[in-house]
Protein: TetR/AcrR family transcriptional regulator
Organism: Thalassococcus lentus
Amino acid sequence: MEAERSYHHGNLREAFLDAARRLLERDGLTGLSLRKCAEVVGVSHTAPKNHFGNMAGLLTAIVTQGYSELAQMMTADLPADADRDRRRKTALLGYIAFAEQNPSLYELMFSRDRFVNDDPDLMRQVGACFVVLADISTGLGWHQGTVDEMNGKGQVALWSLVHGYAQLVTAGRFKKDNMKGLSILDILPALGVDQND
């Protein structure tokens, strides 16, 4: 990775984030450091500290960016009048596509004790993802109980399904002939009739 010495000072933070993302995907978390980001961008090794403070600050910014992109991919190209079935399919396919395109970032987003979990910007982006999850988990018809109980169970079930599937896909685990080429939609259990589109 060549040093990027031609940057605009106003975009230095973004240059660090871009470098960090590429280092993360190329070398994994163990290959990522503030010093390496500075080398890629072509600035003093102390410069990233002015923007992120420490490694946890950098990772928090990367993860925040990741959740923002995940929410966008889960709702990409949806018309305003899309019904829940279409919103659900788009969200599930977007979730898997994000994991496949950003495997190391995806793993980092669900790791423990690597970043500042209660960072306000991060929590806003995580919240945006949960809004999508709550929407697509409504009306599954998989569970019994009160409406609130069914919605809670539906969110856990659908998130577990798509998250587990994404981890297996990114790990290259589906190698048997009858598993190759399957989409998340191919394994989704039959859905009930949505009452609240």
About this structure: The longest helix spans residues 147-170.
